[in-house]
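1st attempt posting a full record on here, be nice pls
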Amino acid sequence: MTVRNAVQRVNTAVDAWFTQPEKNAAGRIGLSRIAYSLFYLWHLSTHSSDFLSGMPGFFVEKEVYLVKYVFRDFGASLPPLFFHTLESLLVAALVLLAFGYKTRAATIAVLLIGCLTEGLSTAIDGKRTLVTLVFYIPFFMALTNAWGKTYSVDSALDKRSGRVTVDPHDSDWDYFLPARALLIIFSALFFGSMVYKVAFGGAWLSYPDMMANFFLNRNIEAALYDLPLNPLAPFIAQTPLLYLCVHATTLLFETFFFLSLINSKIRDFLVSMALLFHAVNGLWLVVTVTPILAGYFLFIDWQAIKDFFFPSSPSSSNTPAIAPKAIALLALFLAAILGLLWHSGLGVRELFNLYGLIDWRTIWYPVLPLSLGWLIMTVVRWRKPVRI
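the predicted structure (as tokens):
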């Protein structure tokens, strides 16, 4: 076999993987747009950017690359109003995105404003979990606009105008293309984390009792922050079989997450395991990567969930009961009001985290049983043919 033939075969295989159909692709991506927007609004409600106006100049010049190389006179000179305005614009764009009005423009606005806000607060780091929320998802969606084709004001306006619209149960591959691109990134990041632990983080191989100490140290940290302690930590730390299993499982999971690229069954299995892994870390180990939840939303079949609880006939699918123009006006009104009142102190911001009830840690409480249920269902269905 010549090199050219080998390259062509690889290219054909890659094309076949990207273009394989995905059940309910159009609907699940459209609904994930709504989930993403609400999640992002929740994130903004718990993390104000006010602190950026008061960062010491020496810290900014040393740590924040965007400021260091672009906004050299930033320092502590920009007033809180500048960051309030950025956040308000981002909130307005997210409201429009949730409604699916001018979806591509709203997605681009979320991408640019979110990246600017994040870039003004941190050094460039591709491993930060915020990158998934702020960059990867809106970037991929801006390229394809896949999530604006269903459950959106745009699609309702198209239908009212007589243009062709998309059935939420459409399984065409192009709607799921951004999710597959994100899955590749997740696989690379997990594998890179394993390589770092093995090649550069010598403790993972040199100290077999590292996880025992880790569980105990995290309990100490939880106590310092007045968080619930992990009641199993002392038992795990005294049981070599358990902490060695945790040690090995972590490395194996990160090493073989790329197998999720093979088919939807393995993907669902590994994604549900990832959610379970993150939930345990967040609840009992004070290790949270909460923003990455938005990435996993793309792999949940929201359409199947919607059909289970709210079945609809094909004739009524994707058709709103209210006139699309009225919904568009409502979207613009809510975007303006929420954006203007976001920093008003009237409780608008706090409404999205239920006045402190849902924070970076408590959000994992529902995720833990739901991900466990998803994992069990995936295993139970293992013998069934792979879905498309």
